[in-house]
Every structure is written in structure tokens, then in C-alpha cells.
Amino acid sequence: MYALFSVASGLGTGLIGFYLGLGLVAIVRGLTGHDAYDEQVSITFGYVFGLIGWLMGVGMWGAWGREWFGLRTYWRKAPGWQRYFTFSPDHKVIGLQYLVTFIIVFLLAGLGAMLMRWELMESGMQLFNHDQYNAVMGLHGILMVAVAVAAVVGGLGNYFVPLMIGAEDMAFPRLNALTYWLIPPVAAMLLSTPFLGGIEHGWTAYPPLSVVTDSSQVLFGLAVITFGLTSILGGLNFIITIIYMRAPGLTWGKLPIFVWSMFVTSWMALLYTQGFAVALLMVLLDRIAGMSFFNAETGGDPLLYQHVFWFYSHPAVYIMVLPGFGIALEVISHFSRKPLFAYRYAVGGLLGILGLGGVVWAHHMFTSGMPNYLHGPFLVATEAISIPTGLVFLAALGTIWMGRLWLRTPMLFGLAVIFNFACGGVTGIFLADVPTDIHLQDTYFVVAHFHYTIVGGEIFGLFAGIYYWFPKMTGRMYNEKLAQLHFWWMFISFNVTFFVMHWPGIQGMNRRIADYPESLENVNLFVSISAFLLGASFIVFVYNMVYSWIRGPVAEANPWAARTIEWQIPSPPPVENFPEPPLVKGHPYDYGVPGSVHAVFPGAATLPAGGGGGQ
Amino acid sequence: MAAATHAAHAPHDTLRIKRAGLWLFFFSETILFGLLMSARFFLEGIEREHLDQALGVGITSILVTSSVTAYMAETAIEHDRRGEAMWWLLGTIALGFVFAFGVGYEWATAEFSRHEAFGTVFFTMTGVHAGHVLSGVGLLALVAIQLGRGRFSSKEHWPISGTIMYWHFVDIVWIFFYPTLYLV
Known about the structure:
Chain A is mostly helical. Chain A is built from 19 helices and 2 strands. In chain A, helix 8 packs across helix 9 and helix 8 (216-244) runs antiparallel to helix 10. Chain B is an all-alpha fold and 184 residues long. The longest helix of chain B is centred in the last third of the chain and has 32 residues, at 117-148. At the A-B interface, helix 8, helix 9, helix 10 and helix 11 of A face helix 2 and helix 5 of B.
């Protein structure tokens, strides 16, 4: 009932806001002598007001809005599972809201990939016509980008950063709730685009196509700008939380590496996300107000879009993959039972990626017709970024070296991150070098490359994190056999799919195109079948998660005997996180160092649940 | 809100946290305005259409003056002079409206259209900035209403300080936009 009430009142006020926006547009346009209704203008303003109405109705008005007018604030409280449908300030609730939402989005977007591979099994058109293929491809792209940007950061980051730094919550709990409740409208808008003509320009939305195509582009632009807002505000919240909310004694040199990776990621999100938003704002202005950012006839320049867009969208790949690195290093240290090798260098590597990540964007534009003198600097900067990335790899390999590896599922996924990203990194060199890139630009080689880096680097990291922290989040243990089955199934079919996909790319098979020459039919059939196998592996995952969450055996507080703070409290953690505030004494990864301990609870009567030294 | 339920923890310095959060928001906004400014130079180089220079100087000095009045309002509330703070706030709001009106007048009398490149960047930059000015006016009005109901004092005036920080920030953005659009 509470859940229904919360969401229904959000939808109600959202609708009221939407019609208010339409009405205002009609009045203003009527007064200035235009038609009262213009599809694009009315939808845009209706959406802005509708979004505010949705947020206020879903609970922000009581928790926050009233304060702006000097009124008393209140939270809508709901028992049990229903609290996941309310505007809740608790970072653990918000983390699970993000995680479950984005797993659903991930599965839907994966279904889109299956449909595309179905179409590509044979040359010629079978399942779709060209427009439908483009719509599915664009939707798969933008949904997966959203998953990659927000699933780890919003889900696992929200849940575990405050726990790992010993804080009672994020620095701005209400802002945190706001960032989550912006997501449902974004997802709904993106999922409705296929019924309004589809986003046929792919997730990159290059003009001039995005300026002249159907009005589903308006929905796409508004949804992505809203999503950018989520990303920026979330990043801001993480940075402030990590700077100001750490437990006493938790110095920067003792910060768990996952928290470091979230810190660096958050800076990226805060500083660069504007690029995507501004680029799409320009597209919207070109469409709605008849401006001329990208119309070369009247002095515009489509290249401007690519610069502004990649100014965000290259750093975005680090927003996606750095949390994956963080989780991988975290589990590799815990499951090798060794201190994290070269901790300081790993942190330096993350910071180096933050520094270099903003000056490499034009390597996506080597064939765009930008001035030739830009090729050299961007080639060098792009290749230079492998140096800080190498430091992260150094830390991972040095930790595994001579460790007593405990090959449970999180560790397997963590090791897979290192393996997959190495493959993605090697193919990246061909795309960073101008001569090879000119041949490989816009082929399936690029598709294989970025799936190796993002899926192999981040989505594997996401699963490592989900399995690693599942007992902490739910208080129950997943089924290890099914989890290992999921791992091997996914790992092998993923590698077969995308390793083979390099080959049609080198042969010149174009990405984003629904058809291809008959000579490439065999290899595409093979890739499609292994892609279906990859898709099927997630059935095991979903079954394992759902069943274990409901029926799984009750988990111990610290099943991995890990030392970091989140494992020293009961599973799932109490609402206030720490009944007794923790005090940090030593390094989080000092496994095997006699007498060392990471955190103690000075006020507690009993000793922490586990994770002392000497293990 | 959260602090009340977590009595076991030492209270964090919430004012510092809020201020730092606002500064990060300004960082992020700076990138937004910086990208729009880059678009201006990317499309038009250092070319410029004819603009009313007297109007440009006029609205710029009005906005700078409004920063002074905003500062006076903050100083007044820090010394518990509520009535005086109210007058300075209302003055700032009025100057903000005058600025927005000036931008609107410039739009109405501009000799170029939004369908050409300079018009595109001019209307976008001034439009996005004027939108920020108007949102600042809205925030100032909200804190003024609460001040009128006797809420703030020298000990608790973060909403006023935060709003005025935002006002200064929007002002500084114009200090960069004005030469970019009018003087280049």
C-alpha cells in the first residue's frame, strides 16, 4: 500500500506537471501568435514540469521541498520491502534501488543485443527492416551506457562507500534519493523511443541526423540530460562524503581501493558529464528553436558536436571502468590473502587516469575531418594513458603473485576483469594509432574492443562486486555452484563472441549497419550463436540471485574473513550502520601481518566479528 | 535530518560540508559555461556582430552592483540586522530583474537572428545565463520570504549565504561572458 501510494502520487503529480507545462507553452505561444501546440516544444516544457512534479509527488516535497518555504519536513515511512518504493534517505536502500533497477535495464538492453544478433545471423534482412534495426541498436547502446555509468557507482558505490569509510550515511542523503528517483522517468522515456520512430542515430546522436530525425530524438535528449544530472549530483555527493565523512583514523593512505576508485570516478562524472548534456542541449536548440549550431549552411559546424560530445564520452569510459578496477583490486587482495601490492602506485594510477582522461577525446575523431595537426597530440596522449593503467595492472598481478588464491566466485570475476581488460587494452592500441584506426574506424573491430573493455572490465567487475557483497546486502548466501557455473559460462561465451568479432571487423564489416556482404555469413552465424549462449548465462545468474535472496542459507557477518569495515557489522547492516562508531587503526589489506587490525569499535562490549590479523 | 537519528556519532561539521558541496556544484557549472564559451570561439572565431555597447555596459554594471547589495545583505544578517538584510535582499532581486529585462531588451532589438551562427551562440549563452539569474532571483525570493517570517539569525543563516554564493557565481560567469560576447 505504501509503495503503491508513493509511486502513484509521483505519477499523479508528474502528470499534473506535464499538463501544466503544455498549458504554459500553449499560453505563451498563443500570446505571441503561434499555434498553441508544437510537438517538440510542448513535450520539452511538459517534461521539465512533469519531472519536477514526479519528484515532488514521490516524496521529495515532504522531505525537502517544504524546507524551502520554511515548513517542517517529514519522511514517508514504509515497512519492509515497501521502503524500496519510497523517497528514502538511507544509502543502503538507495544502493539496492539502483542495483535492481539497473540489472533489469541490463537484461532488457541485453535482449536488444540478442535481437540484433538474430538479424545478423544471415546477410540480408530477415527479422527487422533497417529502421527497426537502428531503433534496437540505438536503444541497446544508450541503455547499456546508462547501466555501465550507474550500476556500479549508484548501486554498489552507494551501498558500500559509506560503510567502508565508517560513515552513518552519505553527506547529502536527500540529494542521494533525488539522484535515484530521476532514473525511472529516464528509463521510461528511453524505452518508449522505439514506439515514436526510434533513435536511429545510435547512442552518440551525431548531427545532422539527430537534428533532422523523428521527434523521439527529443525524448532521447531530455532523458540523457536528466541522466547526466543524476551522474553529476551523485559524483558531487561521493566526493564530499569521502572527503568529510571518513571515520577517525581513516587517512587517505588507508582508504580501501574501491573507495579510491569511486573518488576518482566521481571527479570524472562531476567535471565531464556536462559535455554530453551541452551537446544534446545544442541538438535540442537546433531542433526546437531553429538555431544553427550544426547547420553548415548558416555558419554552424557538425564537428562542434563531436568535440563537445567526446569531451564527456571518452572520460565516460573511465567512469565506467574505474569502479570495475576498484572492485577487482579489492577482491583480489581479499581472496589472495595478501596485502594489496603497490597500493600507492595503484592509487597514483587511478589519479593519473583522472588527469589524462580529459585530454584524449579526439582519438574518436581521427576520420572526422578535424585538422591533421590534432592527430599527433591525441595519439600520444591516448597511448600515454596505458602507463597509469599499467600501474593498476601491476598492483593486481603483484597481489596475485605468490598469494594463496581462494578461487571463489568473486575472485574468479575479479581475475577475469584483469584478463579481459588486458585484451581490450591491446586492441585499443590499434585504435589509438592513426594509421590503423583509419582502417578500423566504425567496424566490428571497434565493437569487439569496447565490449572487451567495458563488459570485460566493468560488467565482470559488477558481478564480482555483486557476488562478493551479496551476503552483506541480503544477509543470505548465494549458491556457490550455480555462481561458478554462471562465471565459466559467461566468461567462455563472452570471450568466444567478442574475440571472433575482431575478424569481420578487420575484413571491413561496418558497425551500426543492419546488413553485410554474404562472404561474412559464416563468421557472423558463429558470433550470433555464441552471443545467444552469452545471453543465456544470465538466466543462471537471475535464478541464483532471486532464489538465494528468498531461500538462501543465512550468511555469517563476515563469510570471507575480510578486514574492511563493512564486514565487521551484522549482515544486512542495521539502519544506522554503526551502533558504535568505528576507529581505524591500520591498513585495510594487511593480511598476515601479526597483530594488525583495520578497524575497532571502542564503544562496543564485544570484539568485532572477525577479520583480525594473522589470517 | 539524518544526524538526528544517529546520535551515537559525533556530529559532522555540516556547514563546511554544505559549503564544499556548493563549491563542487560551481566547478561543475563552470564546465557547462566553459563549453558554451568554447562553442562560441569554435563557430565564430573572434568575429562578432554589432551589439548595443551602452546596453552591454549598463547591464554588466547592474549585475556587479547586485553582487554588492547581496554581500551587504549577508553582512547584515551576520550582525542580526534582519530589517536591513531584507532591504538589501529586495534590492538584489530588483537588480536581478532589471538585468534580465536588459537581456530581454537586447534580444528584442538584436540585429541578427537565431538562425545564424553568431545569433545561435549569443542567444544560447545569454539565455542559459539569464536562466541562472532568474533561478537565483527565485532562490533569493524564497529566502526573503523565510526572512520575513523571522527565520534567520547570525547563528543560522546558511540558506542566505548559500544563495548569495550562488548569486556571486552567476555574476562571475557574466564577467567572462560579457567580454566574450560584446568586446571580442
